[in-house]
C-alpha cells in the first residue's frame, strides 16, 4: 500500500509570551530554554522529523524570530569548531539545521491555540491532507507516538490525537475526551472534547497531551468557532465541531512518560530527568542529588 502523504508539515505553536518564565522570557523565548544543553524546540523538531515531517511551521510572534533562527546554519562557528578539532560540538551545532526545513508563520494577536494553528494554513501545499501539531511545552516520552497516530489515521481516517490517562483531580488544565472503546485498548473513538473542564464535569480521565494529527478540515472548523475557555479560540472547540459534523476522531492513549516544559516546576523535572540519563553528567548528578536529599 502506498503511504499517503499525511505528514509533510508539523506545526509548532510558539507565539506565546512565556509569562510563567518571566523575567527570563523578556530576552529568551521559552522554546529556547535548554533541556541540559539542547533547546526544547530542537527535541520537538527531532520528533517531527522522526515521524516523517519535512517542514516545521513555527507559529511565532514579532520579537520571537530567534526560535526559527536557531535552526539556521552557523558557518563561522562551524569553521571555528572545525579548525579547533571540536568534532562532537560541530555535530551538535549542525544537528538542528539538518533535521527539518523550518518556516515561520506569524500570529500577530494572542487569540489562543486554535487561532495559532489556523495561521499555518497559508504555508501548506494544496495537496496536504493532514498536519501534525506538536505543542512545544509537552515532551512525550519515548518518542514515536506520532507514527502510531499516523497509522491510526490511515486505518480510520479523520483526525487522531494523543492522550494520557491522568488522575481526575489533575484533569482541569487539559482538553478532555469523551470516548468509547475500539478493539485496541490504546485506541479510542472520540465522541466529544471539552477544554479545561472541572474535575466533576470531565467526561473521562483521558487528556490531550500536545500531539495532534489533524485532517485539513480542521482549518475550516477553526474559521467557524467562537472564543471558548479563557476567551480564546480553542483547538479543542474546532475538534468538537469536526465531531459534531461526523468527522472521525480517535485518540491514541500513550502509556509512556511526559514532561511539561511550560512552567518552571515541570521544566526543572524535565531538565533533571534528561540530565540523569546524560553520559557526562548523569552519574555525578545522581550522587549529588542523593546526598542533597539526605541533608
Ligand atoms: C493546551 C490545549 C489542551 C491540552 C494541553 C496539553 O492547553 O488547549 O487541550 O490538553 O495544551 O498540554 P494549554 O496547556 O495551552 O493551556
Automatic annotation (TrEMBL):
It is an enzyme of class 2 (transferase). GO terms for biological process: UDP-alpha-D-glucose metabolic process. Keywords: Nucleotidyltransferase, Transferase. Residues 10-273 form the Nucleotidyl transferase domain. Its EC number is 2.7.7.9. Belongs to the UDPGP type 2 family. This is UTP--glucose-1-phosphate uridylyltransferase. It comes from Pseudonocardia halophobica.
Amino acid at each position: 500500500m502506498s503511504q499517503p502523504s499525511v505528514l509533510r508539515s508539523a506545526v509548532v505553536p510558539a507565539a506565546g509570551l512565556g509569562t510563567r518564565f518571566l523575567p527570563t522570557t523578556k530576552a529568551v523565548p521559552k522554546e529556547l530554554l535548554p533541556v541540559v544543553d539542547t533547546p526544547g524546540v530542537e527535541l520537538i523538531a527531532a520528533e517531527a522529523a522522526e515521524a516523517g515531517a519535512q517542514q516545521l511551521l513555527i507559529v511565532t510572534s514579532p520579537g520571537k524570530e530567534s526560535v526559527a533562527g536557531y535552526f539556521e546554519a552557523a558557518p563561522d562557528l562551524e569553521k571555528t569548531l572545525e579548525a579547533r578539532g571540536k568534532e562532537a560540538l560541530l555535530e551538535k551545532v549542525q544537528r538542528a539545521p539538518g533535521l527539518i526545513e523550518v518556516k515561520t508563520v506569524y500570529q500577530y494577536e494572542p487569540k489562543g491555540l486554535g487561532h495559532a494553528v489556523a495561521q499555518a494554513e497559508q504555508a501548506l501545499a494544496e495537496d496536504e491532507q493532514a498536519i501534525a501539531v506538536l505543542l512545544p511545552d509537552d515532551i512525550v516520552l519515548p518518542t514515536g507516538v506520532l507514527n502510531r497516530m499516523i497509522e491510526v489515521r490511515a486505518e480510520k481516517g479523520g483526525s487522531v490525537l494523543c492522550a494520557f490517562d491522568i488522575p481526575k483531580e489533575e484533569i482541569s488544565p487539559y482538553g478532555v475526551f469523551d470516548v468509547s472503546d475500539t478493539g485496541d485498548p490504546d485506541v479510542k473513538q472520540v465522541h466529544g472534547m471539552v477544554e479545561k473542564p472541572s474535575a466533576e464535569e470531565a467526561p473521562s480521565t483521558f487528556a490531550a497531551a500536545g500531539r495532534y494529527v489533524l485532517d485539513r478540515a480542521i482549518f475550516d472548523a477553526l474559521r467557524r468557532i467562537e472564543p471558548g475557555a479563557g476567551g480564546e479560540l480553542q483547538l479543542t472547540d474546532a475538534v468538537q465541531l469536526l465531531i459534531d459534523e461526523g468527522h472521525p476522531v480517535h485518540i491514541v492513549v500513550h502509556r509512556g512518560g511526559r514532561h511539561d516544559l511550560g512552567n518552571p516546576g515541570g521544566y526543572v523535572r524535565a531538565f533533571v530527568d534528561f540530565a540523569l540519563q546524560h553520559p557526562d553528567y548523569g552519574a555525578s548528578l545522581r550522587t549529588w542529588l542523593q546526598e542533597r536529599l539526605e541533608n
